[in-house]
Each structure stands twice: as structure tokens, then as C-alpha cells.
Amino acid sequence: EIVLTQSPGTLSLSPGDRAALSCRASQSVGSSQLAWYQQKPGQPPRLLIYGASIRATGIPDRFSGSGSGTDFTLTISRLEPEDFAVYHCHQYSHSPRSFGQGTKLEIK
Amino acid sequence: QVQLVQSGSELKKPGASVKVSCKASGYTLTNHAMNWVRQAPGQGLEWMGWINTHTGHPTYAQGFTGRFVFSLDTSVNTAYLQISSLKADDSAIYYCARDGTGDWNTGNWFDPWGQGTLVTVSS
């Protein structure tokens, strides 16, 4: 089973800041089969990025994904108030599928 | 648009069963695999497994065998999750989530997700 470790657990930043969220896998994620989701309180996760770097439909270009193998990063170039939420990474290259424990992005 | 609409919150006693529905609209259920994901209170996401909506064959992740059953009713474009012999630690939000593509030969991201069904198990 691939274990995904997200860091930091909580990230405190201000609107306008740049955010970098990390997701490390316990073994290589094949074909960059990694996704990122945003989850706000009381809502389901929303797909942001798949294939490690491909933005989903309707996702603003301030969100970008990068990485391969075992190290992946979600970058938000300039934080908007609506970006403060929990972010989950997800690998779908190996079964069982797995998620990281989440990074909470909070307003400083 | 493509949408998954789940049934409403449930309050059950320990030992009871619950059946959560996930109705697909905007596409044909049998064209994409369906996944089930659990989120315990204040916790992360846990993949429970998936069902091949073309064949009806379910695959359960470790920890979700025995009491958990995935099923379909293709006549109403709906997937189901049934949990029997409920325990207090089954209390969680349960999400259905569609595979992002209809490619059965590779792994897929999840999109869209249902709105979630809160199951509370309490005496």
C-alpha cells in the first residue's frame, strides 16, 4: 500500500501569499497518477489537479501541481480568501487507492 | 451536468443496517466506475473500494470486507452502499465518487463526488 504523507499539517498564510503544499509517497506513484482536492467545511472534496499537473475544468490558473515519482507539490500562487480550506492528495496508480491526511490552509 | 446526489443523513442504533444511495445524473452509470470513500469526524479521506458498474463486480479495500456491500440498480442509474451490524466507529460521512474517465484499464482520479451522507451510530 502506498502511504501519502502531506506537509505541513497546517499552513498559516495571508491572502496574497504564495502557498506550497507537499505530498510525499512511500513508493513511486506510476505515470504521475496523483490528484489534489480542495475541501471546505460541510462540502465534499472538489477536484483541482489530476495527472500531477493538469488543472481540472474551471480551476483558476493560480493553482498548479508539480512533481513525479514520490514527491509532489500543490502551489497556489496568490491566495484568495476562498482558498482557505483543507487540501488532500490522492494516488490512483496502485490499489488500494490512498489519500494523504490533508493539509489545512488557514488565514494567518 | 454530471452530478451525484446521495440520500440523507441517517441515525441508527448499534447492530442495525443502513443503505446509502448515490443517484447519478448527466451520464450513464455503467460508463464509469464508482468509488466509496469514508471520512470520520475531523479525519481524512479513506478509500473503501469501488464497483465496476459495467459488470457489477465490487472490490473492497482492507478493513471494508464482510459488513460492507456495494451494489447497483442500473434501471434508476443509482449505486448503493449497505453497511450491516453497525458499530459506533462506523459513524462518518460516506461519499460516492465517480472515476474521472471511463477507462477501465487504468487508475482514475475521482470527479465528481456526491454531497456525502452522514451516518451516525448511537444507542
Fold and architecture overview:
The complex is a heterodimer of chains A (108) and B (123). Chain A has no helices and ten strands. The mean pLDDT of chain A is 97. Helices cover 0% and strands 55% of the residues of chain A. In chain B, the strands form two sheets. In chain B, strands 2, 4, 5, 6, 9, 10 and 11 form a seven-stranded mixed beta sheet that branches. In chain B, strand 5 and strand 6 (58-60) form a beta hairpin. Chain B is built from no helices and eleven strands. The model of chain B has no long low-confidence stretch (mean pLDDT 96). The A-B interface holds A 31, 33, 35, 37, 43-47, 50-51, 56, 88, 90, 92-102 and B 35, 37, 44-47, 49-50, 59, 61-62, 95, 97, 100, 106-116.
Summary of the model, kept short:
The complex is a heterodimer of chains A (108) and B (123). Chain A is mainly β and 108 residues long.
What descriptors fit this protein?
heterodimer; A: 108 residues; three-stranded antiparallel sheet; 55% strand; B: 123 residues; mainly beta; seven-stranded mixed sheet; four-stranded antiparallel sheet; globular
